[in-house]
Design goal:
The complex is a heterodimer of chains A (about 500) and B (about 350). Chain A is built from 17 helices and 20 strands. Chain A is α/β, with parallel strands linked by helices. Chain A folds into two domains: about 220 residues, Rossmann fold (3-Layer(aba) Sandwich); about 240 residues, 3-Layer(aba) Sandwich (Rossmann fold). In chain A, the strands form four sheets. Chain A has a six-stranded mixed beta sheet, sandwiched between helices. In chain A, a hairpin with a 2-residue loop joins β9 and β10. Chain A is globular and about 70 Å long. Chain A starts with a strand and ends in an 8-residue tail after the last helix. Chain B has about 350 residues and is mostly helical. Chain B is built from 17 helices and two strands. In chain B, α5 packs antiparallel against α6, α5 runs parallel beside α7 and α5 packs across α12. Chain B is globular, with a radius of gyration of 22 Å. The two termini of chain B are about 45 Å apart. Classes of the chains: A alpha/beta (about 500), B mainly alpha (about 350). The interface between A and B is large, with 53 and 38 residues.
Chain lengths: ~500, ~350
């Protein structure tokens, strides 16, 4: 693939990216959120049409307009979410939608499936119901389906994200088997160790641009991290950070001991002082969001205890957390943040209204005053307070959610990726706001996949890797290379140095 | 003016249907609006519509809330009403003398039963995550048999003076009692919305339950509450229906009324997939359906054919109101309208959506 570009309204998702896959090669595609990985594979798989550039397959130029065309040309894709039918048998899943005749030869189909499963060493029987297989086996069956359609290019989009360690190894064995047969595999993962374990080459994307293609053996983990995160200088003048008042340090505003949640984050300890801005640093999938969600009980908390200003409190639901003065801006703005059909006004007053009580609705006048105050204070661009939030741009939607929390005057505010997918101007505004809030005495946890943003705003960084805390940095230690060093050296590491 | 139009745009469909029906009726006979005084009360086409639609209006209010919060429908409302009214009738019949207090206690008792039935459906939907239609299928199937058993396998007659007054008119008041009761119920609903955050909670849960939960709203409780309200609505509707009829016919009382209630919600411009809702729309929708039924009768269509005509009418209505047709109408309107008049300031919706979906 040469010079592939793809734009969506308002965003250039891919900017002349080159990508080469050789036969019998496992090629890891890496990058942070918004890097363009998904867009790239969707162009290869024919889901999106490219805007410009050329794709050649075995020397022949090709141009896919539909996923079926890609499939017919031997490109199979297995997405992160398994797209099979759990209530059908393994064999049915492997052959569904592939026969053009109305009649099915069940015996022949089951025999064929059985042979294929055996040849790939997949521990499943053709007649067994798919839902009775483990996730890893289901994943492998999806792969077998793709392989049986004579594919010589296989795209695996985060196949390991919901698998445990043993399952990952079973999957890797299958991938090696296919590699022996000459299938080229594109492997997307957020787990660095897995990329090092299985891939021959690594291509790194960042912000829709190609950073480079590297031999896995020749690339140090720390180099990979720095390539993924980038270190472009922004035009932001360095913001003045707020250091918490030392006299207050004795009693933290919030303290967690051995906190763990159903989302799989390992038990961790955490404190934050009055007026402190700290952050969870780490790559995607490192557990930084899961930790924040555990503090707010957005996921079910499975263990540990929590103290607010030294007093032990029980927080079992988000409502308890809100009543205790904790605010949480979620990572997934669309899924967890906005109530899309409701007006900007209703979205702003929502949480304060809930705190105020079911039987004490604000008058329309009062609600309008709240909304207008924060529309002005945060410079939210909306035609009126009555406009549905869904017709605002991403940055303005995010400001509305921020306004919602600021209106409740929390003592401790967690911001998970507040700057994702929004324009640079708003990003700077949000960072300035965070520092201003800290000056007023609010404690803030700021999480971002852009490390420089965190270095600018946080006075302490808690570094995470593979769902546990691997280090903590503060003061003069706060540099990008220090963060990368901690990530690279932390945890069960086999490949660095 | 433009803002006013925008605010009531969701009522466009039910109101235009109503206008259409009025025109048809006026063509059939110019005396459509004539109101006569019989025994000191108003009668005529229009009062009859208000009289006939009482139960449907009350049930469609509950249905609107259930739909908005749970993104599904309760199909057991007619059966719930049959059970609650059976309890009502039994309590009234065992009394030596039927006083206002008897009726009141009987009504309260039937309301408690209604709340219990609502709680049953609500528990299945909110806690056990059963789809609303499947959950209410249980009562839909068994409800009338339960009512039949409460009746003692008879169809008891309510032959007291008070029931007669509730079902028809109170001497001295020119408006039929069920109409008054419906108006009171609508007023109480308005007060409920004015004094609580019910609308905000229900809409938030119906649109995005995840976000609602993270902002301190318990979606389970809200969905449960809407089913409780639905149960109470059923009890009130059953109360009116049985007093109107004067006897408790557990086989035919409010039979298949959930179809009309769901239709009223849809005609009212509400999405059957939950979210934002308009009670006013549903109420107008309910009256429109009653109007349609009576128009078909007035046109002297053979009783056996009435349902066919109703079906055809509804098909046309739903196609006209479908997003596909609406979008193409909007397109045509936009073409005719000069560009300068078009609303400025807000980002066109499809783009905002696509940008949102762009993430990895």
């Amino acid at each position: 693939m040469r010079g592939i570009s793809k734009s969506f309204p308002g965003v250039k998702a891919l900017d002349s990216v080159d990508f080469t896959l050789r036969p019998g090669e496992i090629h890891a595609l890496m990058g942070e959120n918004g890097a363009g990985k998904s867009t790239l594979i969707k162009v290869i798989a024919g889901v999106y049409e490219k805007d410009s550039g050329s794709i050649t397959l075995e020397g022949k130029p090709i141009h896919f307009k539909a996923p079926e065309e890609a499939q017919n040309n031997g490109i199979g894709t297995v997405y992160q979410e398994i797209m099979l039918c759990p209530n059908l048998t393994v064999a049915e899943n492997m052959y569904i939608g592939r026969s053009h005749s109305l009649l099915v030869n069940w015996k022949q189909m089951n025999e064929q499936a059985e042979r294929l499963l055996a040849s790939l060493n997949i521990p499943a029987r053709a007649t067994q119901e798919l839902s009775s297989c483990s996730l890893a086996v289901q994943q492998m069956i999806a792969i077998a389906r793709a392989v049986d359609m004579d594919c010589n290019i296989l795209i695996l989009d985060e196949p390991t994200s919901s698998l445990d360690e043993d399952e990952v190894h079973t999957l890797f064995a299958l991938m090696r088997e296919l590699k022996e047969r000459g299938v080229g595999i594109i492997f997307i993962t957020h787990f660095l160790e897995q990329a090092y374990e299985i891939s021959d080459r690594i291509t790194v994307l960042r912000n829709g641009k190609l950073v480079g293609e590297y031999e896995t053996i020749a690339l140090l983990q720390i180099e990979l991290i720095s390539k993924m995160l980038g270190n472009e200088l922004d035009d932001i003048t360095s913001l003045k950070k707020h250091e918490p008042d030392v006299s207050d340090v004795s009693i933290p505003v919030f303290e967690a001991i051995g906190l763990s949640s159903s989302a799989g984050v390992r038990p961790f300890d955490f404190t934050i002082q009055k007026g402190e801005v700290n952050g969870f640093a780490g790559l995607l999938g490192s557990g930084r969001s899961e930790s924040a969600r555990a503090i707010f009980t957005a996921d079910r908390v499975t263990g540990g205890e929590v103290r607010m200003k030294g007093k032990r409190v029980k927080i079992k639901t988000p409502l308890h957390a809100i009543t205790q003065g904790i605010g949480y801006l979620p990572e997934d703005r669309k899924g967890d943040g906005i109530i899309e059909d409701l007006s900007v006004r209703d979205n702003i007053i929502l949480t304060l209204q809930v705190l105020n009580g079911f039987f004490k609705p604000f008058s329309l006048k009062q609600a309008q005053e709240f909304a207008e105050e924060y529309i002005e204070r945060l410079n939210i661009k909306t035609p009126t307070a009555d406009t549905p939030i869904k017709s605002l741009s991403g940055g303005n939607q995010q400001k509305v959610i921020l306004a919602r929390w600021l209106l409740t005057h929390p003592e401790y505010l967690i911001l998970d990726e507040p700057t994702r997918g929004i324009d640079v101007g708003t990003k700077v505004e949000i960072q300035k706001l965070v520092i201003a809030l800290a000056h007023e005495g609010m404690s803030v946890t700021f999480i971002s996949s852009e490390i420089d943003e965190m270095l600018r705003t946080c006075s302490r960084l808690i570094v995470m890797k593979d769902r546990e805390i691997v280090g903590e940095l503060r003061g003069s230690q706060l540099t990008e290379s220090a963060v990368m060093n901690v990530i690279a050296k932390g945890g069960k590491n086999r490949w660095a140095d | 003016m433009g803002r006013l139009m925008k605010r009531f745009s969701h009522l466009f469909l039910p109101l235009s249907v109503m206008v259409l029906l009025i025109i048809i009726n006026l063509v059939k006979g110019a005396d459509y609006f004539r109101i006569t005084m019989v025994n000191g009360a108003f009668y005529g086409n229009i009062p009859n519509i208000f009289f006939g639609a009482s139960e449907l209006v009350i049930l469609s209010i509950g249905m609107t809330l259930v739909t908005a919060a749970s993104r599904g429908q309760d199909i057991s409302i007619g059966e719930s009403a049959t059970i609650t009214s059976a309890v009502f009738v039994q309590y009234v019949l065992q009394a030596n003398e039927v006083t206002l207090l008897t009726i009141l206690v009987a009504f309260l008792l039937s309301s408690v039963v209604g709340l219990a039935l609502g709680a049953f459906n609500g528990t299945l939907v909110s806690i056990f995550k059963v789809q609303p239609m499947v959950a209410s299928l249980i009562l839909f199937t068994g409800g009338r048999s339960i009512a039949f058993m409460i009746d003692g396998k008879l169809s008891p007659i309510l032959a007291n003076d008070l029931s007669n007054k509730i079902g028809t008119v109170i001497p001295g008041i020119p408006i039929q009692t069920p109409i008054i009761l419906t108006v009171v119920f609508i007023a109480l609903t308005a007060v409920l919305f004015k004094t609580t955050n019910l609308r905000l909670y229900v809409e938030a849960v119906g649109i995005n339950p995840n976000a609602a939960r993270l902002n301190g709203i318990n979606p389970k409780k809200v969905i449960f509450l809407t089913f409780l309200i639905m149960g109470f609505c059923s009890a009130v509707a059953g109360f009116i229906a049985v007093n109107k009829a004067g006897r408790h016919d557990s086989v035919n009382l409010l039979k298949l009324i959930m179809m009309d209630a769901i239709l009223a919600v849809a005609i009212g411009g509400n999405s059957l997939n939950g979210g934002k809702f308009s009670i006013t729309g549903s109420i107008i929708g309910a009256y429109t359906i009653e109007m349609l039924n009576r128009t078909l009768l007035r046109l002297e269509i053979e009783p056996a054919m009435i349902k066919v005509f109703k079906a055809v009418f509804i098909i046309i209505l739903m196609v006209v109101a479908s997003p596909v047709v609406r979008a193409s109408i909007t397109k045509v309107v936009d073409k005719i309208r000069p560009a300068s008049v078009q609303r400025e300031g807000s980002v066109p919706l499809p783009i905002a959506n696509r940008v949102g979906k762009k993430e990895e």
